Fold:
Amino acid sequence: MTIKVLVVDDSATMRGLITAALRRDPEIEVVGSAGDPFEARGAIKALNPDVVTLDIEMPNMNGLEFLEKIMRLRPMPVVMVSSLTQQGADVTLRALEIGAVDCVGKPTGNMTTGEGLGEIATKVKNAARATVRATMSVAAKAPAKPVRAKEFTPSGDLVAIGSSTGGVEALLTVLNNYPANCPPTVITQHMPAAFTASFAARLGRACNAKVYEARDGDVLEPGKVYVAPGGATHLEISRSAGLRCRLTDGDPVSGHRPSVDVMFKSVAATMGDKAVGVILTGMGRDGAQGLLAMRQAGARTIGQDESTCVVYGMPRAAYENGAVEKQLSLSAIGPAILDLSSAKR
Structure:
């Protein structure tokens, strides 16, 4: 069964590039295209696509406004097509909060190569498998302020969190519970390299902790959260004059760089039973083996349950291989992390 895709972009050239890239995949059928949200609205009704690729900057109504209407009135998988700039990253993160399943960098001429095709086609196919729910308005949906966290006494544990498709909203929800003296936390979220600094800043506005894009050699301290940079390195943990972030070269692992498996395995080797591992929504199996290594080393482990995942792939793989000690709904995971990493547990 082929996946029907509607391509929405105000540029005819971009529509052509995206369409050509997607049509190279035999599992995808581009059923139509539209130059603005008004054309797109009619095309969605007429063509009933499985996935929409949506540009952010368009005339008459911008992509965010149109996305919000889709998510409220006719929820469906949407992949945002964004320029890889600071402004593009900020707006794309807002789109992922509203309910877009994933994002892809704006294609250039090299999208006709296998590498470009692989990224956009894979994201579209993943999106077709996502669970998309009707959402509230943007103002009602986004956590505007961190919640007042309950009293927390650090135990010295390290928290490691891995996520992929649907992870932006999931991580915002989890960290919204974090207090200012939270356990040191490392995160690997599959995301384009240009977006992770903006994502760290967005997470920092949603919680009481300080959130950074990780740098090689950063000392892991209570009250701080470190997000793996996208792209060329893996995030690992080491003991060298204290507990530190290490950005290491290497091939993709479990199909990703940075890889959740690499991070979890380093936490297992470095922290043993003084850690909490969490695997959230995402496509594929990245993190399953690493989380199992953490559990076998004595760490406490949590997996997001199927009912609250956008894609129940990574958590399913971890649950099925015995890596997950507790399977919880998204809203319960933040408080559970604090309970497990508290000296008063």
